[in-house]
């Protein structure tokens, strides 16, 4: 497991984007990193199939609203990264060119990463890329059966706000992405930095990774 | 106070965007509305000075990272709205063309709105637009002195996760935007709809508007 050891060196972060990503899966974690970047050196690559804006609207949700975010790199031009964030969302479901390209990218880049964070059903993309094989991981609790059914070689943990195994930090659904990111910041930058960020965004953290009210809600 | 009475009619929502908006101020509330739009009719306008992508990076934060979101309308072409969301962020501070245009838009559109939601220092923009005069409102607790100093005719409430006065719903900092939005959804669409959305995003709500750990943290 490689680590981002030198905290004075820029943290090189990347985020995978695809049509139908869940907005808060990205912007919960990324806004924590935005605040981190006010005091620490960070570079951010928003990575997708093309440089066209990427919508949060799933191709399968005809009547839903969406917002479009501008990528900075394609999967072919993405820079070297320390940390990759993989969000979930309705767009992770099924197979299409954007999702297959995202899965290939995750498979190819994982060996060079210091850390991988998955949020919500983003763990399904990491699982389909094979990078969770033999690892403990968690995912969205409402989509539990669907996502865990994608990969029998993953040791899925049903009651967890987030799970750390080696350099893979996987979280439960949507808002849990904020908690896993703050826990990751605490691990890498220290508890004081994490505390300042959570106070800055007035967020009451889930600090216990095995406290999971949503597992209980879904009888897991 | 006008209301969005007919829940089968589309909710026409708008969001003000300007350089240096806080990402989570927008995408916490908006992702709640994204999930609402899976089951209820919603239209969304992302409104800014021009149709160029709008960055979360503040002009004042040279080294910070940012993400760019594509507006759907300008202040001049924005459609009629039921609900306007005004986010905060470092970009609200001071005076520049984008912020002055946002303030003018808020002042001009407010009389036609059913509801106004402000998040974080977005209440400072609403205050500068004059639409909070004589009303109770709250804001970000870390930026308390700065924002409340902008408008002496507002009855600023120091200990509040959010405040409702008439058709104005103002929240405390950043993450509090999720709570005020879920409270607003509960008021307009009912508690069951709000509960389904918060469970869907695995968010543990602050349900008591006067419980405010961040006011305590800042000695307010």
TrEMBL record, chains A, B:
Residues 15-186 form the DJ-1/PfpI domain. It comes from the Eukaryota. It comes from Penicillium chrysogenum. SUPFAM superfamilies: Class I glutamine amidotransferase-like. This is DJ-1/PfpI domain-containing protein. Coiled coil: none annotated. CDD domains: GATase1_PfpI_2 (cd03139). InterPro entries: Class_I_gatase-like (IPR029062), DJ-1/PfpI (IPR002818), INH-QAR (IPR052158).
